[in-house]
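Q: What structure does this chain adopt?
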Amino acid sequence: MQKHNSYLSMIFVCFLSSIPLQCQDTTPSVATPSSQDLFALMQQQSQTLATILERVSNSSVPQPPSTNNITISPIISPQLTATSSMQVMISHYMQQIQDASSFVWQTTPALYEQSRNLIFDYRKELVAGTAISVYTSLVAYFQYQYYTVFASHAWIHWCNHLTLPELVSASTSSLSEKLLQDIHMRYFNKQNVQDVIIPYATFIQEIDLQINAAQTYMHWYSVLNTCYIASFFGLRQSTYERVKEARTRLSFIKNIFMSWISEQTLVSNKKN
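A:
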């Protein structure tokens, strides 16, 4: 509306400026227009003014945008939102921890009293169950050690057609050659047939495991036999002697391999 009024003011000023005014002038020989000429000029200016006003009224005056449908939303930083969410989460967890601590402190005395009464009421059953569990675990442990020594894949069965004295008196070179062949046949690497590191390492690992199992069995037999309860756990003198002989045989087989390794090391050092 203000812009429209400014247009009308400018047009009215232009109209007034176009009308000649009579004034006394000292300049000589200037013709003064007659009243008919002034009337004709005013009619012409009125028509021009009417035409301009009609064009201005028909023209579209830009209106300012309406602010009724504008929604102003606050600008919230993502970092501020993430920080606030983290603070709320931490506060929630801290509250849960405090509640849990309070619950524990409140219920601990009652639980302790109930547990003590329960243990006292069933003390005989608990002692019997514990004793049976310990006994069963020890028997199973001893049997596992015995099985490790005398399993079908154990090295105690290597050259079993020879007794231990015959094995000790046999040629070391022939025993080494046969042992290496058997190691390669049992542990050879299918992806790399020429690989000898993995078969040798696997052999040492397994034979050490079997020797340690024999020593463990013998140790526990000695301890329990001293207390005269070895037979109560299924440990017999005959099984002890058998395990002892197996340990000697396994140790001898390992010495054959280690002797061959030593010879190969000496040969390699001489060549270098």
